[in-house]
Amino acid sequence: MQRRTFHAGPLIGLSGEDLPTAEGSGPYPAAGDLDEDFLTLLTRAHDAQVPLVLSSTQEPGDDVRALARKGRRLVAAYVWNRSAYFHDASLLDPLGVLCDRVAAAQHEDGLFDIGNLHSPPDTSFAIQDLCLTWALLDADDEAATGPHREVIEQILRKAGPALASGGLHTPNHRFEVSAALARTHQLFPDDRYAVRIDEWLAEGVDATEDGIYSERSPNYAVAVTNPSLLTIARLRDRPELIDYVRRNLIATMFHLEPNGEVEAVASRRQDQTMRQHVSRYLTQFRELALRDADGRFAAVAQEIADRDAGELGDFLAEVLEQPFLATRLPAAAPTPDDFVQDYSAQQLARIRRGGRTATVFGGTDFHDIPVIASGLSTNPTFFKLRQGAAILDSVRLSPQFFGTGHFRSDGLERIGPATFRLSDEVKVPYHLPLPPSHRRTDGAYALTPDGRFYASMDFPHRPKHYRVLRTAVTVAEVADGFDLTFELTESEVLLAIELCFRPGGTLTGVDMLDADGNYQLSTGTGRYTVGGDWIEFGPGNGDTRVAMDPGERYTQLNGHLTPDGLRVYLTGRSPLRYTLKLRTSG
């Protein structure tokens, strides 16, 4: 049964009047409105992927998501009349291998094991690609791909009911599953799919007014939530969902670095210690630029294309599905590059002055949920600074206070136009004798947490005597950089401040501690230089050597919190008031 959902192959060279309008896909651009440079870029990038796929169809380590994406890459090349592989029969056997591997991996209940067992959300990632692949082949309607379509259709029909009845784990999974069901329902309608989508959407979208999703993760915003909401909006006639994406893209502009990286320190997912790049947002910024005639979004989309970084070829399939994405962008408008912007949802502030940017972060979950776990924000980095190519990826503080680990601020307070205060109070108890009513003659007390460790001491019922450490860090923008003023009171402890610079530059004015990229600034100032860009830091605060203590939560499991890069340490002892002056070349 043919369901022509869009017409992929003969898009280019024809006017909008010559082409059918695909239901739910948006209008076709007229020939004069096509962004030829954009299409050439995607075609070149996509064709470069094909040999890599052809050489790896039997890769044993590929999971179903990888197999489905490889199949999508082959099919986009096969159906696209500007590709060097257009209707190239040499793609068909490899495509058959990929389809058969996916089918063989599918359980009888319709689900796949992708890390998690019989996983509806992980299955949904593959199903989205397979739906797009099937629809591209169906629109192309070549007899040679009939067997491939049959295999894919069987997979989709088998998976749909499982997605409509199964569960999930994380906030973004609700939208990934719903988008997979929306795609499947478009191809092979089933009322159960529509009902389940409505159930998930009835829970609401976990986004703040300033565009931050609850997971605070650029990775999951760009890869899951945003594209899924756009798909559901298009296929299920839910235009109100587009506004969540719009707000997230506005927030993303304020989280952008001049080199295209997206700030992720506030994330509650694994990307809180990883680098993210704006290239993955290409079609999202492009779609909203075209929908809204927004020149700022157009500027970001064009900058991504001009950088030509990342796997841009993967966007070709999306453009074949939604040809209006190939329309020329509206005129570019300036994007934010001179601002102080704070986000209460993640207790984070962004400061940008042209090529100089800074991030102040005080929003870890550690004070509400003092554990290290997936889904929590625990990154102890509280300040970042970059001047052009000179990048200070992390500033951290570690007092040696009963193994409690790094300083993590309990929130972020704006105390001036470009001045912020971070603060924390850590209390560690010494436990006094149990009251008579809770004593046991057999000594068999409950195994309970002290806050740092467990013991059979019935800690909750014991009076306590506390040792306290209070820490405050004031971050103030000055004319040529930033002043970070550290104040530690109440207890006498050794401490270390860690500056971690990105590899690739040169350090001067510091002493090497070892061959592992560790240095110390004892006196004067140091400088980190990359080309003509530099960050100067100091003054040194003595030559006492103090190790960074990640805390017992890490050391008990032989874990660590050592960031990658060139690490410079400044040390001291509390009570302490010390101002670290960071100056830049800009």
Describe the protein's architecture and organization:
- The protein has 586 residues and is an alpha+beta fold.
- The chain has two domains: 36-326, Alpha/alpha barrel (Glycosyltransferase), CATH 1.50.10.10; 338-431 and 466-584, Beta-galactosidase, Chain A, domain 5, CATH 2.70.98.
- Helix content is 31%, strand content 22%.
- It contains 13 helices and 21 strands.
- It has helices at residues 36-54, 64-79, 92-105, 120-140, 146-165, 171-187, 191-201, 218-235, 242-254, 282-292, 295-307, 315-321, 552-555; strands at residues 261-262, 276-277, 338-343, 348-353, 356-361, 383-387, 390-399, 412-416, 419-431, 447-449, 454-456, 464-478, 481-489, 494-501, 506-508, 511-512, 518-520, 526-530, 533-538, 566-573, 576-584.
- The strands form four sheets. A nine-stranded mixed beta sheet has the order 3-4-5-6-7-14-20-17-16, with no helix packed on it.
- A hairpin with a 2-residue loop joins strand 4 and strand 5.
- Helix 1 (36-54) packs across helix 2, helix 3 (92-105) runs parallel beside helix 5 (146-165) and helix 4 crosses helix 12 (315-321).
- The chain is globular and about 80 Å long.
- The termini are far apart.
